[in-house]
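Problem 12. The chain below contains 264 residues. Write out its predicted structure in token notation.
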Amino acid sequence: MSEFETLLYDVTDHVATVTINRPERHNAMSPEVMAELRQALAFARSDGSVHVVVLTGAGDRAFCAGADLGTSFVGDAVPPPLEMHHSRGHLADLFRDIWHLGKPVIARVKGYCLAGGFGLALACDFVVATNTSTFGVPEIDRGLWPFMISTVLVRAMQPKTALELMMTGRRVSAEEGRDLGFVQRVVPVDGLDAAVAELAGTLASKSPAILRLGRDAFYATLDMSREDALHYLQAMLTVNILAEDTAEGVAAFLEKREPRWTGR
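Solution.
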């Protein structure tokens, strides 16, 4: 879309692909990138033809190397301290946009996935990575602590494992990431697009209405007590059963045919 200067945006077969298009900067996130990512997600959310979003980075070297330190700490473009403090909320807003999108989001990872880029990938529902990809939180070696992304790290792996990665800054291979639970699929480089397309196609073939109900419930109950979660989920089951797509899905099963989802 012509509206974007730092992204590429494409919709094909109900899948919106959002690409951070700064390969010369390892797809680092500047304030402009984060603003345009939020705009792209808003487009995807409001577009009824979009059932799935794929988030990725241009080129072969990096998904996203995190914040663009060159625009955050040095140069004449660095804003005043208070403005900088408020601007750091942009990443939090971006995470919230992903969580409340109502549609599955897949991180397509090739190359480096570091710092804020690591957090961005983990804010997505699924991570599909090449076997040459590398993950990590190197902030500690820059005299920083990954405050903003720690909330997604501790929800994607065991908290003490996340703490070890944040304290040591060590890199993690895609295979180890799969063992730790934050990478869902590891594939050869030449199989990345096919693996992402397969997962996206599978998700796009489901009822978008029921996927939204289930996805929202999954995240809503993560921090609830067991009792609160059960009460909430009981109510959501009633909402689910009232959906048009539920009646269609049951009818299609009984009639031994493919369902025709309406998204209602």
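Discussion. Residues 31-46 form the longest helix (16 residues). Students who got a different answer should revisit the alignment rule from Section 12.3.
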